[in-house]
Inverse folding.
């Protein structure tokens, strides 16, 4: 079933001639309802194993950071701050702070992305710049920055993306010689016996509850020494795919013919799929075209640079492809549960969805007046505004924007925000399994 913007406007009694005409003028069809066929299936026992691993800091170098530290259901599967602190941080969400005894070297360079629906089959690119993606022409069927060091045997792209945070000194590994994993990363020992991934797997193998469960749920594992990092990653991916599936929002109910939207949300949907042109990028069942667009979003923090590079800019997709036309382009995010995943932008530049939307309408005009006070950053003695304080850098960000401004009045903005709120899924937001009381390692489970 597909409905049109005009139909939904009329369907809730709002079909005045003027509004109907505006909706029909450039209306795009609404997506088909999401169903089970859009997702891979995962054994419940593997999901529960991944649930424990997702919340267990055992995977981090200093045993202090879990996947859930930066992707917690309390913050919409993100972390509630613009740029997070991984290793060297204490606490969770906006209350997270730097540990004076293990001060982080820098912030995590990009805003923590939400995890909603990453288990859906159409998600074939991960991260803000798409640096890991399905590519049938590559060994193992994946394109990643690791290339020759890439491990084989991941069950899915979602599983393969887990290999990056555990190697990042700023996220989970720790710095230099703080622990055996950080030291292996520093020395370039990633794969093979004694490599960083094997060292992480060895920690898990040594915990009887994990070892016994892996043997019970996986026919290819008959002894603890058979457990590899790919097995751990596959379990976490199965959990993420099931726990953070989100397809029971009011918008989903409408698409299935099971309910109507409030009047403001219906007007906002007509705009979203009509004259506001939001759906030109935020298309498809999860409101993303999975492509990369330069939208002039403000840059802050350390940027994306190798350790030997002096700049602090983040050129987005260009860093993956090397193409100048990809400068400052970032992946279109899915908008599922977007009202609960603040702050917004690849660097978390905007504290509220309304502030982001207003600047997004005309980013070139908005950039000079960007309000830095809205940024949510844990205290850290580092420079965060190098790029925006450089006229040439600001000019480069603005020059990359190729789309014209969009004109909306205050009422139309409010209606679009109402529609975006209708993408919130009350059944999915708390998680199906929730936060465990404890994990097999005995380490502290991240909690707000």
């Amino acid at each position: 079933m597909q409905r049109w913007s005009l139909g939904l406007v009329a369907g809730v009694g709002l079909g005045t001639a003027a509004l109907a005409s505006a909706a029909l003028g450039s209306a795009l069809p609404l997506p088909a309802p999401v169903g089970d066929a859009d997702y891979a299936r995962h054994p419940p026992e593997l999901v529960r194993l991944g649930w424990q691993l997702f919340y267990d800091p055992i995977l981090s170098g200093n045993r202090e950071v879990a996947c859930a530290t930066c992707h917690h259901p309390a913050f919409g599967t993100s972390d509630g701050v613009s740029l997070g602190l991984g290793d060297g941080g204490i606490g969770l969400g906006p209350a997270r702070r730097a540990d004076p005894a293990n001060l982080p070297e820098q912030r995590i360079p990009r805003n923590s992305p939400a995890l909603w629906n990453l288990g859906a089959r159409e998600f074939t690119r991960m991260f803000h710049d798409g640096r890991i993606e399905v590519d049938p022409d590559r060994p193992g069927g994946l394109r990643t920055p690791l290339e020759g060091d890439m491990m084989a045997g991941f069950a899915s792209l979602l599983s393969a993306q887990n290999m990056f945070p555990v190697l990042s000194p700023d996220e989970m590994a720790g710095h230099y010689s703080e622990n055996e994993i950080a030291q292996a990363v520093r020395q370039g020992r990633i794969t093979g016996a004694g490599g960083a991934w094997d060292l992480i797997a060895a920690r898990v193998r040594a915990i009887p509850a994990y070892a016994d469960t892996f043997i019970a749920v996986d026919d290819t594992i008959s002894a603890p020494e058979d457990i590899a990092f790919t097995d751990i990653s596959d379990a976490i991916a199965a959990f993420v795919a099931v726990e953070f599936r989100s397809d029971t929002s009011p918008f989903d109910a409408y698409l299935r013919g099971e309910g109507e939207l409030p009047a403001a949300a219906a007007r906002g949907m007509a705009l979203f799929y009509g004259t506001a042109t939001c759906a030109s990028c935020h298309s498809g069942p999860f409101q993303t075209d999975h492509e990369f667009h330069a939208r002039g979003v403000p840059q802050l923090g350390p940027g994306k640079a190798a350790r030997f590079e002096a700049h602090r800019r983040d050129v987005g997709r260009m860093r993956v492809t090397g193409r100048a036309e990809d400068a400052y382009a970032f992946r279109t995010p899915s908008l599922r549960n977007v009202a609960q995943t603040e702050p917004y932008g690849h660097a978390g530049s905007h504290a509220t969805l309304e502030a982001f939307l207003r600047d997004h309408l005309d980013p070139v005009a908005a950039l000079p007046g960007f309000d830095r006070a809205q940024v949510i950053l844990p205290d850290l003695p580092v420079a965060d505004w190098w790029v925006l304080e450089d006229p040439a850098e600001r000019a480069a960000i603005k020059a990359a924007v190729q789309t014209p401004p969009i004109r909306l009045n205050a009422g139309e903005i409010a209606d679009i925000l109402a529609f975006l709120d209708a993408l919130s899924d009350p059944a999915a937001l708390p998680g199906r399994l929730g936060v465990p009381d404890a994990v097999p390692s005995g380490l502290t489970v991240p909690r707000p």
Residues 254 and 260 are 5 Å apart (CA to CA). The mean pLDDT is 92. The radius of gyration is 22 Å. The domain at 44-243 is CATH 1.10.760.10 (Cytochrome Bc1 Complex; Chain D, domain 2).
